[in-house]
Structure formats: C-alpha cells, structure tokens
Amino acid sequence: MTRCVWCGQPIRQTVTLSGLWRFGQQRTETVCERCLTRFQRVTADHCPRCGRQQTDRRCCYDCQRWGANSLTNHAVYQYDAAFKAYMQQYKFQGDYALREVLQQELVRALHQEDYDLLVPIPIDAATWQTRGFNQVTGWLTDQPYFQALTVRASHKDQPQSAKTRAERLMTQQPFRLVENAPALLANQRVLLLDDVYTTGRTLRHAAAEIILGGAKAVTSLTLAR
Amino acid sequence: MLSEKKWFGRQISEPPSHGAGRPALVPVGTEWCCQRCHQRVRSTDRLANGTSYCRHCLQMGRLTTRDKLYTIPEPNRFSHRAAATLSWLGTLSPQQQQAAQAVLQHLQRRQNHLLWAVTGAGKTEITFPALAWALAKGWRIAWCSPRVDVCLELAPRLRQAFATTSQVLLYGGQPLPYIYCQLTVCTTHQLLRFQEAFDWIIVDEVDAFPLRSSPMLQMAIQHAQKATGSHLLLTATPGPELQRLVRRRALAVTYVPLRYHCVLLPQIHVQIVWHWRQRLENGRLPAKLVRHVQRYLADGQPFLLFVPHVADLRPIQLALARVGILEAVTVHAGDPKRQEKVLAMRGQRIPFLITTTILERGVTFANVAVIIFGGDDGVFSTAALVQIAGRVGRSAQFPTGEVTCYCHSQTRAVLAAQRMIAQLNQQGKRLGGRIR
Predict the structure, then answer these.
(1) From CA B322, how far away is CA B289, in angstroms rounded?
(2) Which pLDDT does position B120 carry in this prediction?
(3) Which chain A residues touch B48 with a CB distance below 8 Å?
C-alpha cells in the first residue's frame, strides 16, 4: 500500500480495464485525490499578461504599472493559502519528496505552451548548498530543458520572498548567461519556468537576459500567481 | 557557560561554542537511521544533490546526512533550587490519597507505572505528592501529552501548584523561545529534541492520537528519559497493548475506579435511529434527536453534540437551522477559533457546541450533557466513547448528567464502552461510590 507523499493517508489504487489493457507496469499514484484538489486553478477570467485570477479579462493594475516592459505569463494555480502551505513545506522546509505533487500537472501545463526551449529560473550557489535542490527543476520529470542562466555571485543579501514590493522592484539584475548560451538561444522561442509570479521582477530580469542572448521571443509559465 | 544551558539534555542541529557533534543520520546497512526520531530514512527520500534527509521529523527542521546534532549531557543544574514546595491547597480524597502513595512508591523505586484512573478522577492532583518529592530531589521532569490542548490547559495549573519551580511550556509553533527549566510541559513531539534529559516523564492521555499509533513518538519517550529514569503513564482508557503489558505484569498498574466526588460514572444510553446517515443526506435529523436538543435548550442545559466527521458539522448545523435551532456553533481540529469557542462554551455564553472527537478528552465543562450522534461510525472507538461519556459530571456541584448515543444499530464499540463503564462502576461501588 502506498501513502500520499503530502498528507500521509493511504491511497487506494484503482485498477481499470484500460489500465490492464496497456502492457507493462502500472503507474503507481503517489499523491491522493484530496491533495491534488487542494489548489485553486486559475480560471479563464485572468489577466492576459500576468495570469492573475480576476473577475474579468482586463489587464490588471500591476501589469499596467509595468507599462511597456511587458511579459506574457501563464499561471496554473492561484497563490492562495493552500499553495503557500505547499511552498512552505516544499521549498522552505526542504521536503523534496513533495515535488511529486505537481509533476503531473506541470506535464499537462507544458503541453499547452508553445515554445522551443525551456529555461528554468536558477538558484544561487548558497541556496543550492543549504536547500540541496532547485525547486523548479524538481518539478520537471524528463522534459528537456536548458539551464541558460546562472545567478551572479555576491548579489543576494536577503531572499526575494522576505522583501516588500518596493524593495523587490529595486532589485538589480541577478542573472547572467552561461558560456554557450547565445549559440543555443539564437532564434528560439524561450519559455521561462518559475514557481511563483509575485511582482514579476525576477522573470523580467531573466527575460531581458534571454533576449540579449539572441532569443526570438520569451514567455513564462509559473505554477502560481 | 550560561548560554550552554540550551544544549543540556537536548539534541539540536545548532552547534554550541565547543564540542563536536555526531552525524544526524547514521548508516544502517544500505539505509540511514535518523538520530532524532530513530526512524529509517527511505532510499527514495533523497535531495537533488544526493544527500538523504529524514521526512519523519521534517516539521522540526530538516536533517540531512550533512547535518550534525549537538548535545551536552544533562547536569541537573537549575538556576534557583529554592525548596520546591507544593503550593496547591486542595485535599485528596481517600482513594486519591491511596493512588498518590502508590505513584510515589513506584517513583522512588524508579519503576515504570500506569495510573488507570477513570475520567474525572483527578489524575493531575494524584501525581502532585510524587511530583513535589521529585522536584525537591532536584530531578528534571517532563510532563507531556500527545494533545496540545491538554498541555495548554495543564501548564497554568502546574504553575499554580508549584509556584517556586521554574517551568516551561513547549509545543509546535509556540511564540516563546526555549528555556532550560526543571519542569517541562510539552507535547510528545517536542520530546524528540531531548536526549537522556529527564529523570521522570509523566505521559498524560497515553492512549490518545497520535501517540497511540506512532512508533516514533513512543520511541521519543524512551530516548528523552535518562538511563536511570522512569515514566508514569496516565489514562482512563488504556489500549489493548497497555492492557496486555499489565496482564503480563510487565508494567505496574494502579487503578482509581472512582471519581474524586465519589459519584459513579454516567452510563451511555443508546437510542436507535435507523438510517440517520441517509436522512442527514436529505438534510433531516431524527425527530428523537431534535426533541432531545429542544428539551435541553428549553431547560437551559448546556451540552456537547459529538458527530463523527468534520464534513458532518455543516449539514447538521443546517438541519438544525431548518427546525428553528439557530444557536448551533461548530468546532473541529482545524478551526482557528477553537480556543475561543471552547472558552465561550465554558463561560456558558453559547448553549451548545457541535464538535468532532477533538473535544473527547482534556476539556472540562461544569454541568454539561453529551449527545453522540452516529455512535456507530468507525471513528467512535471504545476508548473514544468512554472518554466522551467522561465529559459529564466532572464537577462536585454537578456530579451527574446524561450521555445519549444515537446510532443506526448497536456496534461492538458501543457495547464494549458500556461494558467498560459498568465494570469500572462495579469496582467503584465496592469503594463506596454513590449513584448521586
């Protein structure tokens, strides 16, 4: 019997006829139904630029403030209490096993995107040492991706999530292209992947750097907004 | 030196000024064993950088193979050793006196001991003489319970009873930092942070969730206790494992079958309501139950209405509203206003509470009646039913009350609960228990 990686409750495996018809090993579920439905999806009524959940489809106030510096972002879930609780355990407590909760959903979301090259947002060396994993690439199963960006050394005084909006918007460019990036980015449609879109500062910094590398277009996908 | 008190008898991942730590995870064959919770780390619980980490005690901060745990052996060096005196002014009943003597004797012999005392017997007060003795000897003592509500309710009582002893209350998400004290009141999870620290551990409500079903927490008690230490288990409803230990004479036991006011336990009355679940799905409650609730409301009798699941709270509240009873207040484990609602109930500002089994133990309301709706549901184990019945008649002014269980049919758990209460009452009668 398997238990849900998040809530620890036992999962009842359902054997279906179509499942039996396919030869080979049955895929075992690792997350229970209830945990999969804890998050609120972003519905069709969202901001066309940043993907924020709204009651209509007009551009949101945050995106109007960004003005010409626009970036099209799609979000899968709303950044609500359930998603915060998930990120708290996965990213901040460092429970790497929880990556499995969103892996299937990310496969589905990536299918709906139109891109040539997937670039996840990197983490800096110090975070890699303490956390032991990149929370974004953890969600990727076997999709090909290219780590085109690295974090510049000696930039980080405090994490983005600990800053206010004004402080976050003041952040200097934290990213740098890797050595062979321009060759691979040239004339490609790049999709940036990140965990949460909050102010959009991080993704815009990343997008600017990718464009400098010669990419044709940059859009982004985040798990939550 | 002063700052090192933080490590006395504890094992934490923060290093002290000097002293080497030991690895937090040690290899056992091809797997790892966590040195904080003593559970096996599965081979799949691995970070991207290749280190393994323990998921069992993740809530207390992640431990990986790169981390170390630091400890300083418990020196029993408390800041003010003013003669620990019992500042409690109450008196014990003859039965309580006897039990207190037994607890003290077992403590002096450093034996593990089970105090099987009925709900409302005054278990806390029974331990006071032994506790005073141990504190006077300069022992370090932990009073722990799997239920945070029990700890929160107990801490002020202990602070009153032992006013000269330094005390600290520990639980997950507490606002105050840790301090080194002679008497620690904590949840059983907090014991994971201790290593051979306590001379005596009192485990209150030892059969409660999650301690009952968690080998990790049971192990935590063993590891938090000194090699020379012992523990005292308190419960009204020991589970089958404990009862087996008692039968095999592997664990000393003292019975207190009578409440301190010498009135017998209220028996559970069963009312059969067929297909209550289907009726509830149609938004209706059994007429019997509605009349019962209306009678209590008319008499001004406060009561608790126990229901099986959190999901049942809302439908029952709506069904009551449909028959004109609008005062219903619901409470469950995840309710952020739980404390306030319980306090409102205790202050008689609300006539009744609809609750899940969260209020089955550790709470006292003077003059309360109990209705169990859906007593045939699996969540109402024998222990749970006996504990729920034990909410009634706890104060000396109101030593009696009604316990009614509405169910589709008699179940084994309900019958066993009735039998357990009857047996305890029979023993109580021999000791001079009265019906009212």
Answers:
(1) 14
(2) 85
(3) 96, 132-134, 137-138
Q: pLDDT tens digits for B44-91? A: 899 999 999 999 999 899 999 999 999 999 898 886 555 667 788 888
A95/B58 CB distance under 8 A: yes
CB neighbours of A36 closer than 8 A, spacing ≥ 6? A101
Q: Is A103 exposed, middle or buried (0-12, 13-18, 19+ CB in 10 A)?
A: middle
Q: How far apart are CA B363 and CA B183, in angstroms?
A: 22
Classified by CATH at the fold level, domain B94-256 comes out as Rossmann fold (3.40.50)
Q: What is the per-residue pLDDT for A156? A: 60
Q: Closest Cα to residue B353, out of B343, B361, B362? A: B343
Q: Structurally, how many domains does chain A consist of?
A: 1
Architecture of domain B268-430: 3-Layer(aba) Sandwich (3.40)
How many C-beta atoms surround the C-beta of residue B222 within 10 A?
13
**What is the three-class DSSP state of B51?**
coil
Distance from CA of B64 to the nearest CA of A (A): 9
Hey, is the C-beta of A96 within 8 angstroms of any chain B C-beta?
A: yes
Mean pLDDT of A34-57: 92
* pLDDT higher than threshold 80 for residue A13: no
Does the structure show a pLDDT above 90 at B212?
no
Residue-range domain boundaries for chain B: 94-256, 268-430
Domain ranges, residue A207: 41-224
Searching chain B, which residue's CA lies closest to the CA of residue A131? B47
Chains A and B form CB pairs within 8 A to the count of 34
- Judging contacts by C-beta atoms under 8 Å, the chain B residues touching residue A38 are none
Chain B contact for A93 (CB, 8 A cutoff): yes
Q: If you average pLDDT over residues A80-106, what whole number do you get?
A: 93
Residue with the two structure tokens 């239920």: B147
For residue range B124-175, what is the model confidence (pLDDT) as tens digits?
Answer: 999 999 999 999 888 999 999 998 888 988 999 999 999 888 899 999 888 8
Give yes or no on whether B94-256 and B268-430 have one common fold. yes
B contact test, residue of A96, A123, A129, A147 with most B CBs within 10 A: A96
Length of chain A: 225
**Separation CA B155–CA B9 (nearest Å):** 21
Output the pLDDT for position A8. 86
Q: Could you give the percent of chain A with pLDDT greater than 90? A: 63
Q: Which residue in the set B48, B58, B64 is minimally distant from A93, CB to CB?
A: B58
pLDDT reported for residue B150: 87
